[in-house]
Amino acid sequence: MKARKRFGQHFLAPAWADKVIAAIAPSRDDDFLEIGPGPGALTSRLASRVRHLTAIEIDRDFAADLRAAPSPNVDVVEADFLDIDLGPYLQAGPLRVAGNLPYNISSPIIFKLLAAAPASAGLLIDATVMLQLEVAERLAASPGTKDYGVLTIFTALQADVQRLLTLPPGAFRPAPRVHSAVVRLTFKPSPLAAGSEAIFDPMVKTMFMQRRKTLSNALASYAGSLGRDPKSVLDEAGIDPIRRPETLTQEDLLRLVSVFADPEARSLNPKA
Fold first, then answer.
1. pLDDT at residue 27 tops 70
2. Which one of 10, 82, 91, 186 is separated from 131 by 20 to 30 angstroms, measured CA to CA?
3. What are the two backbone dihedrals, phi and then psi, of residue 247, each rounded to the nearest 5 degrees?
4. Is the pLDDT of residue 26 over 50?
């Protein structure tokens, strides 16, 4: 097996694959989608423990190898996970996700799963994935810490995060230069009111582009685009304007969204 650098490939040693499967905790009634099976270290172990497994592999050689060792409950799809439509897979019923994610695209993959969760009507159950330890720490970071940011906030909005396992570089071939972690995201309904996503997303992203500024300054451009005064919005939400974005809890952010969404709120323009 030769790892292809452009796909960020690192292959899991058999003993560690057993530990990852134990962390995933599959059952006979589960349908799974595996992201990036590679040579199949997790695939073969999952297939023997679940009802059905769909393996999404971008590397055509690995996809061909997986098809050459057919299993009646495994479908191999040669595709880039970021390009596929998850809808048809979710229509078949409750789905769990697993995978050893390429470190260079792990965040986009997580955002894709988070985007699919609300539309799945509860059919996307969880995702147990292997990530660079640094990304795993960002997923579960607390407000006020250096790892707390957009990825943390968007994940916490739609999933409970549980770190299950830490892996050393020696768990892979070739060994990466970093430690890894297995994390489970258990999806849940978003607390945002219907339609508030259109406010929440740009509000958070704008603030965290200036995370070291005070909230009154970090919110200025977004509030101004809506004809609102940032200090007035923060005052109505009960948030000190000299705080910084990285200190805001989910409850703080939800209050901010509700203020921005209030059609009765006063505009900067008295004639508006």
1. yes
2. 91
3. -95, -5
4. yes
